[in-house]
């Protein structure tokens, strides 16, 4: 008998019956022209769908102030909701489960992405260093206390729209230096109102969004992604272990479906560093499904599941380059290598040879 592959064992996530534990991580692709998802995404997502497999969309804006990168999708207008429908249907036709990652970039933006050229909004008026990660970041405007309910409401409405578009649930993007992270982390959040200072105060926005979204669509359809240990886009914390544990415990109150955590080794996007930190205390503290992501290959993914350190493993770059990733794990065949040059380009069908030629590779 073939040995069991832990990543390919079934798992019951709330009301959802997953046939395996290989999740598509959220991956921004910058191909949703005018913030509207395009028909080519039908092929992209359905290629990665499997019977009983969980897919998470690329980060999807909750409002007209939520963008900071070119051509990322949104879910705040009727047109966007309609455009998502055939994409969701195609994933469902293949038996996949599909969650929409709902997102607000906060200060990771510039005036050009904002309505009327206004300043991006954040917990703070401290900006990201212009030029960092290649972005032309503008100085942000600190939200006043009485503006925060409207931001929470944008997440609530986006979640409602996601359900209307047919998604099975939403993942609240609380990671990677975007607006929720800008409230969570003490190296960015310098507020003196009830949304800043103590751990309880810094976590308040995240938890208000969780509560509003759970009340709107049902707690059994809500997950949240956190990157407690990372400092992407200058969004770090002086005591990530305490922050992670506080959030994991606080989330239990809302009984949401899952907590999706980026491993501490992903200190920077794309680079692995060993750190003294572990997600295990968060895993143990949180009562729902625990998804782990960040730098996984088949072997350490299997080990994390077998050891009980995670219920599900999200794969980003490997799933991007290998649409049939679960099948390749099953057959134990070689994986395609990912190509960074194609990650964020706006053309969905670019010949890889052209890219390599333009880059000046010798072997074209
Ligand atoms: C092209 C690309 C786009 C990404 N977009 C998102 C995103 O929209 N939302 C998000 O939470 N993380 C995003 N990430 C992070 C991935 O979800 C994942 O955490 C990261 O790639 C590490 O996992 P991996 O080693 O399996 O690729 C992105 C990463 C890449 C490479």
TrEMBL record:
UniProt keyword list: Flavoprotein, FMN, NADP, Oxidoreductase
Molecular-function GO term, any one: oxidoreductase activity
Pfam families for the chain: Oxidored_FMN
InterPro entries reported in the protein's UniProt record: Aldolase_TIM, OxRdtase_FMN_N, Oye-like
Cofactor: FMN
Spans through the membrane: none
Species of the source: Mikania micrantha (bitter vine)
CDD domains: OYE_like_FMN
Disordered, as annotated region: 116-140
Protein name in UniProt: NADH:flavin oxidoreductase/NADH oxidase N-terminal domain-containing protein
Family: Belongs to the NADH:flavin oxidoreductase/NADH oxidase family.
Record domain NADH:flavin oxidoreductase/NADH oxidase N-terminal: where: 7-335
SUPFAM superfamilies according to UniProt: FMN-linked oxidoreductases (SSF51395)
Top-level division of the source organism's lineage: Eukaryota
